[in-house]
């Protein structure tokens, strides 16, 4: 906070406190010329009148005590601009202390799982229950509460894994994240006709209905541009995250328009790394739950 803003806040605080004290003093006593307490000329229903009596002293005393408390509070805690207070308290320091305490409790709770293999944890119902809760907090926003994914977010409950479905592969995805990139190929293909032919061939790889002549022409384009990642047979490459194009699963859709969008604009899939957020033990537990979804291991109780 700049010194100008600091002084601005200080002046406002002082004026508010001084104004409260002045208001209490001004309203707490009678002045010459004031009507009698029982004589205000404000009558209702013939026998109800508004009195003009000062506030009781005990009530005024409570207000003064409140002002004194406010002054003490502003001396001890920050509140007067850049003044840190005699306690040097900060919300950031309190947050860090609370977080450190919570981290210690979490570390103790998950310590038994820190060194166990993912496949072993996938057979532990208690570990799976913890993993499911972690997944709900950190992963469900993209993959859904049931891990079935959505358009652009992989289904984790089937047996199709773009980056490999072995326990260590799943753990690596959770810990280090994944970055997939499908480059735009419109310029390389050169024409709308060649794009349509490539779309037809790609759809034919998974048995979708296509024009056979277009698919045959698209095979040459695929061989020249796509086999480096997807392989000569279109079966993909888990080391690069390149999906198998011969199965029935399509991350962004199998209709011609969706595939055209992929070819023309490319795709960029980003799975963020969770190692720093979860730590190795919790990452291992959630990886076990994800692994269990497609490998039929124990279910959480």
From TrEMBL:
Entry annotated with the keyword rRNA processing: no
Pathway given in the UniProt record: Energy metabolism; oxidative phosphorylation
Keywords from the named record: Cell inner membrane, Cell membrane, Electron transport, Heme, Hydrogen ion transport, Ion transport, Iron, Membrane, Metal-binding, Oxidoreductase, Repeat, Respiratory chain, Transmembrane, Transmembrane helix, Transport
Compartments (UniProt record): Cell inner membrane
Keyword Signal annotated: no
The protein's required cofactors: heme c
Top-level lineage group: Bacteria
Cofactor note: Binds 2 heme C groups per subunit.
Residue ranges constituting the Cytochrome c domain according to the UniProt record: 126-206, 213-294
Gene3D superfamilies (UniProt xref): 6.10.280.130, Cytochrome c-like domain
Primary location: membrane
PROSITE patterns per record: CYTC
Transmembrane regions listed in the UniProt entry: 6-24, 58-77
Pfam families, per the entry: Cytochrome_CBB3, FixP_N
Assembly mode: Component of the cbb3-type cytochrome c oxidase.
Family the UniProt entry places it in: Belongs to the CcoP / FixP family.
Function: C-type cytochrome. Part of the cbb3-type cytochrome c oxidase complex.
Protein's name according to its UniProt entry: Cbb3-type cytochrome c oxidase subunit
Protein source organism: Tahibacter harae
Gene: ccoP
